[in-house]
Specification:
By secondary structure, this protein is α+β, with helices and mostly antiparallel strands. Helices cover about 20% and strands about 30% of the residues. Strands 1, 2, 3, 4, 5, 6, 7 and 8 form an 8-stranded mixed sheet that branches. β5 and β6 form a beta hairpin. The longest helix has 15 residues. The radius of gyration is 20 Å and the shape is globular.
């Protein structure tokens, strides 16, 4: 039977610590408004004329490969990697102002998972996650890396194993008591 509401939604997995939320990104940029903001992917920086072409916020409900219902919120920032805006990269404050303008019209959860969609207008759009911004010379750099697929039941099992391992100590035999 098809049901539209499933009260058995599994709790979302904790966000990967290497991921950055939009709130984290904006907090990190706040002290560097006038510095150029440079996103890096595929081992190179985006071109100085890059555009933020779209910001989307979504609430997702899904069924994972273990038949577990899932739900999460995610924000997508689309970057168009072109050289049309001038000789310098966008200042961090301008990027933050774009996000604030979007937040005025669209509800953005500051803790939502953040995904960047990047394309140069020729290659297909690719999904990336962002790491904590770093000051490099006179610029703020954000490294983008491809967002890998994962198996959520396996990820939950690994989290459980890590938690179980942390809650017990290994006996003299060297074998963990939780195994």
């Amino acid at each position: 039977m098809l049901t539209l509401d499933n009260p058995k939604i599994a709790p979302a997995l904790p966000m990967d610590p290497s991921d950055l939320s939009i709130g984290d990104l904006l907090d990190a940029l706040a002290a560097h408004k006038d510095k150029p903001l440079v996103f890096r992917y595929d081992g190179r920086p985006v071109k100085p004329g890059y555009h933020v072409t779209e910001v989307k916020a979504g609430q997702f409900s899904a069924l994972d490969c273990g038949a577990n219902p899932e739900s999460w919120s995610e924000i997508f920032v689309q970057l168009w990697d072109v050289d049309e805006g001038g000789p310098v990269h966008m200042p961090a404050g301008r990027f933050a102002a774009i996000i604030r303008k979007v937040a005025y019209h669209v509800a953005l959860d500051p803790a939502a998972r953040l995904t960047f969609e990047v394309s140069d207008g020729i290659r297909p759009m690719e999904l990336h996650r962002a790491t904590q911004p770093a000051l490099v010379g006179g610029t703020v750099e954000v490294e983008l890396s491809p967002r890998p697929a994962s198996c959520k039941p396996r990820d939950r099992w690994l989290e459980d194993q890590k938690a179980a391992g942390a809650s017990c100590s290994a006996p003299a035999s060297g074998k963990a008591c939780c195994s």
